[in-house]
Fold these 2 entries.
Entry 1:
Amino acid sequence: AIGPGMGPNTIMAAMFVASCTKGECDFDQAMHSFSLVTTTTFLVGAFILLLSLVNATQFVLLMLPKPLEAAIGVGIGAYQAFIGFQFMQVVRQSDTAFLELEPLGKGGLDFTFSARGEPASGWA
């Protein structure tokens, strides 16, 4: 039921973040992003509602092969796990690679509540 809205919400968040660089936010670009994404969300919602009213959702699900259905579920779960790892600061951006794991032990991850001082890190 909420699945069709998850993608546009992610796009909206990414566009808002992209409109703010180095502490300065471009309000006009943020509002353009907002109007674009809300329009897209409305159109996708109307399309999903139309599919539901004519009971075409079952037909769409029957068209997908079982391995693709499983892959979609795995992809959504991996994406959510990645966002969670970033929120908990288990992975971070790197200068030499796409991203890297936070080091284990002293000064890194030691999985105790008192080890993380930042409340927004997910460990406080």
Note: The radius of gyration is 20 Å.
Entry 2:
Amino acid sequence: VTTIIEKIESKFGKMKVSRGKEHDFLGMKVKFHDNGTVSIDMKEYVKGAIVAGFSEAITRNASTPATRYLFEVRDEVKLLDKNKADVFHSTVAKLLYICKRCRLDIQNAVAFLTTRVSKPDEDDWKKLKRLLQY
């Protein structure tokens, strides 16, 4: 393994190498167990996506990631201000990564919210909050 790492570094430059049974990679904690199995955990990344930057407290839990009104868009609803729209965009991007890696159950809601990042409105903010409550 060391020889292969050296060859890669000679071509691409120095890289961070971790050895052992536990590794962090792209927000995933990868753990190799003695019985030959591997577990992947993203709890810390998920918490960070919810807490970091999202300006409202998530104080309750939802039983589903979205309501039946997920795909409804009302033209008369007020658009979010620039700061809130940036938080919306950032949070949806993090959730997109999460839904592709470990939370397949939120893909439908995240897919819709990604279509709304260019001009999110107050309804979209409520839909995002609902998803985070889930």
Note: Residues 82-101 form the longest helix (20 residues).
